[in-house]
Amino acid sequence: MTRNEFLQELRRALENDLSGNIVKENVEYYSQYITEEVSKGKSEEEVLLMLGDPWVLARTIIDAQNGTEQSEVNGNDRQTYSEYDHERGTTEERSSQSHIFTADTWWKKLLWSLVIIMLIIGIFAIITGVISFLAPILIPLLIIMIIVRILGNRYR
Fold first, then answer.
1. What value, to the nearest 5°, has the Cα angle with vertex 73 and ends 71 and 77?
2. Which pTM does this prediction carry?
3. Does the keyword Transmembrane apply (predicted)?
């Protein structure tokens, strides 16, 4: 597997569960990590073997975004994301931001759409239920009011 194949697989694995910015940040981090390790004298193949399967690495990154400490994911010998990209905010700031309900993936957008549709259907069902409950009472009252008004206008 080449570096580009590894990074493509990592990107594909991350895109289903993380936002675009976080995916880009992680792919850039591992791209830079591979470059640095190769510049230290290791072969690209050795670095990729050290990193392992990109899908397993992606699962670890996704779990880390869901609350695990970055040092547990990267290990003590690797640079953390907050050290690598400190201007984007601390790890705590990013992890608290990941708990906000967003529609950054297709399945979240679909889920939000379904929730909205269900709410509209529920509101419609409640309104029609109230109308069907009150109709047997309101229709005769309306007819009586119309008759009284017509008869009342005749005698004036």
1. 55
2. 0.42
3. yes
